[in-house]
Design brief:
The chain is an alpha/beta fold and about 270 residues long. It has 13 helices and 7 strands.
Length: about 270
Amino acid sequence: MDRERIHEAVREGYSRVAEQGCGCGCSCGADPGEISGKIGYSTEEMGAVPEGANLGLGCGNPVALANLAPGEVVLDLGSGAGFDAFLAARAVGESGRVIGVDMTPAMLERARENARAGGYANVEFRLGEIEHLPVADQSVDVVISNCVINLSPDKGQVFLEAFRVLKPGGRLLISDMVMVGELPERVRKSVAAFVGCIAGAVSRDRYLTLVRRAGFSGVEVVEEVPFPVSCMANDPTAQAVFGDVTLTPEELRATESAIASVRVRAVRPA
């Protein structure tokens, strides 16, 4: 799959999510709050953001790892409808600032509407690809991202960009999907499974190597947990995840055992 085809498929898939107001897991009968509660968000956090900011996306809570302080500048890669950006904005306060970058115009429109509705004067959302960030060199204190970098066809470039925009001593906190086994061939070759944050994942070791090659130090996996995909994989309404691919029980078990959600922490050396 070439880069442009991947980017176009991702834009189309997440444009549908923005328009529907709910992520893929919601087609299983779960609401966004239920999904987010299972991946590390508290009831208080979910209730603190504008309605419609939480679409049930993500595979962890990077803000919980970040130890944000008042006055810090935070960059959210693949900010979606703004859920993590708004949580970060609360932590950094009026003296701080949060920048969200997303390449899907429909998501940006939704995020900006949510910011207006919630009165977030310290948050802005910019259109751009995470491989080419519309952000100045050494201008942010913290980079966060939630289940987005796996969607990039050039993950090494994403980490290079994160390193570029961070100030010396700046922190990188990521929740993302990685491979811990082998995907069935039909899943691995599925564009829809790529959009669904599965087929684009690389191995855990490869992922960490790319972070280190970008120049980061102190690279560590803070947590690793299995990520169930059975609901999304065989639900015929979850077209943004697997499209027309209906998995056999054996393929489903192999897919679930091959994928994991990790929380990664790293630092740009001072």
